[in-house]
Design a protein that fits this description.
This protein is an alpha+beta fold. It contains six helices and six strands, in the order ββαββββααααα.
Length: 216
């Protein structure tokens, strides 16, 4: 596991703990906040899976040890003050004990206080769709089409990608803008499902594109 920090850069609190923000390495969704001590961090680095210190039970615990919803660590980063960890993981199943993909699934009421909505972002729906697909993969809600695709497996997902690509071609040949918009949307959705199944972040694809065109 590559890292450019060491034990000397970390600032532990009075209880010998450091907060660890856990983030899905693929969708970038923040999954949970927990605490590590030196021993749990050492076990995390040693095993490649997250271990934390329970402040209520006063003991070490491995995330997903009983539920099977383990977190495979992809990277660990330290903030500029050295007092907070960011742990990027590959999440198996829901991260929250309530059965949700993320522990941060409850939203602040719209319009409450002085909160303002985020500015326009033409790619916001792609980010949101990637997060929704990740949540469906983790939670597997009954009756959801995305759940159906993940449960059917790779061959079914690949078949749908092929079908949607063919339908994009037909729509383009027909010079039908409405049909083309519809079919391209279907293709993009199924491509994102495929990337999730392959555990490949969309960011990897964007970096590849940026690398190809950096000199142009």
């Amino acid at each position: 596991m590559a890292q450019d920090w060491d034990w000397e850069t970390l600032r532990w609190n009075e209880q010998g703990l450091i907060p660890a923000i856990v983030q899905d390495a693929q969708s970038k969704e923040v999954l949970m906040l927990a605490y590590m001590n030196r021993e749990s961090l050492a076990k995390t680095l040693e095993t490649g899976y997250t271990w934390f210190w329970s402040r209520s039970r006063q003991q070490l615990w491995q995330k997903g040890e009983t539920s099977g919803h383990v977190q495979r660590v992809r990277d660990i980063r330290v903030d500029c003050d050295g007092d907070t960890l960011l742990v990027l993981v590959e999440q198996t199943g829901p991260a929250c004990h309530e059965g949700t993909y993320s522990c941060f699934s409850r939203k602040w009421p719209a319009g409450a206080g002085n909160l303002e909505g985020s500015g326009p972002d033409r790619f916001a729906i792609i980010n949101r769709l990637e997060q929704v697909i990740a949540a469906r993969d983790a939670e597997r809600p009954e009756g959801a089409y995305t759940t159906y695709l993940f449960e059917k497996g790779l061959d079914k997902i690949l078949k749908k990608v092929g079908e949607e690509a063919a339908e994009v071609i037909i729509a383009a040949k027909n010079r039908n803008p409405q049909e083309l918009r519809w079919e391209v949307s279907d293709l993009l959705y199924h491509l994102l499902v495929l990337l999730r199944e392959q555990r490949m972040p969309l960011d990897d694809v964007l970096r590849e594109l940026a690398g190809r065109h950096s000199g142009q």
